[in-house]
Design goal:
With about 325 residues, the chain is an alpha/beta fold. The chain contains nine helices and 14 strands. Helix 7 crosses helix 9.
């Protein structure tokens, strides 16, 4: 009953160092057993952050570690498919950073591998574990908004880290894969995973990757959605869900801080309190519990595949412009 899932971290990436390793340490039903990094400097830093953890010099060595039960993959986007498949084949449960894959075809193959090896695989959308998201779902499920007619969601920040993998097309860089996946996922939450009938996207490109993109999606229900993402301008994060009987305003939809969302109806405006949530720890706790209890975690692979189908439509609509 007191067993802790023994996690292996496949790569000492920034998000692993700052968010996920502390989350595993705080989860209660999980512990960091091993970490793999190919650089001696990062290996030494990891050993200092997680005393007692086994430090492996290459990724496959971690997968061969029989004590590792679950693997977290924060590698560059273009490596998610290969190393997730390898981890599943090694008998590990896998929590993979978003985007799960580079397209829906890869995501389907990853799902098939998880089913074949009877292991859990989940895409790491930590915002889905926040109280803010729970309150949004409560409003949607109540029907108070009426028929949903419009969704607007954006996630943008100013990228100022030279040499980042986010700007490397060969590693799956670009704003759509990095932050655009969040508005796409939120839209899927609102639509129940429906696919749009039409998609039109425009983007600004730099160094072979999209750095500023806006998307218009039309659904058979009559819903029109506008999504925006980017990392070449001042930050912006927000969402609005508009129905025939109400409107829900959601500041910072992908964060876990305390705050408010606001419901507007014919009866007036009502602030709904949102409590602070340790999103990453909640995600690790749920995934570890799912492994221990033999159940599915919060996010299903079917949902991730539908999100990737939307991303495929958006990417097909994007055409780099030559100056």
């Amino acid at each position: 009953m007191n067993h802790q899932i023994r996690w292996g971290i496949l790569g000492y990436a920034r998000i692993a160092r700052l968010q996920v390793i502390p989350a595993i340490q705080a989860a209660g039903n999980a512990c960091v057993h091993a970490l793999a990094s190919r650089g001696a400097e990062k290996q030494a830093e990891a050993a200092g952050q997680v005393p007692g953890a086994v430090i492996h010099g290459d990724y496959q060595a971690l997968l061969d570690d029989a004590s590792v039960e679950a693997v977290y993959i924060p590698l560059p986007n273009a490596l998610h498919y290969e190393w997730t498949i390898r981890a599943l084949e090694a008998g590990k449960h896998v929590l993979c950073e978003k985007p799960l894959a580079l397209d829906a075809a890869q995501a389907r193959e990853m799902q098939a591998a998880a089913q074949r090896h009877d292991r859990l695989l989940m895409e790491a959308f930590m915002y889905r574990y926040s109280d803010r998201t729970r309150q949004v779902r409560t409003v949607l499920d109540s029907g108070v908004l009426g028929e949903i007619r419009h969704v607007n969601a954006s996630f943008r920040f100013l990228l100022d880290r030279p040499g980042t993998i986010k700007m490397q097309p060969g590693l799956g860089g670009g704003a759509l894969y990095d932050v655009g996946v969040y508005p796409v996922n939120l839209l899927g939450l609102v639509t129940g995973g429906a696919l749009p009938d039409a998609v039109h996207a425009e983007a600004e490109f730099d160094s072979g990757v999209d750095v500023n993109a806006s998307v218009l999606l039309r659904y058979g229900s009559g819903l029109l959605a506008t999504l925006h993402c980017g990392f070449n301008a001042f930050g912006q994060m927000g969402a609005e869900i508009v129905g025939t009987r109400g409107r829900l305003s959601i500041p910072d939809p992908f964060l876990g801080e305390a705050g408010e969302i606001t419901l507007h109806t014919a009866q007036g405006s009502r602030a709904i309190t949102v409590t602070a949530t340790e999103r990453y720890a909640a995600q690790i706790r749920d995934f570890s519990a799912a492994v221990l209890q033999g159940r599915s975690p919060l996010l299903t692979l079917d949902e991730s595949i539908r999100n990737h189908e939307v991303l495929d439509l958006i990417r097909a609509s994007l055409k780099p412009r030559t100056p």
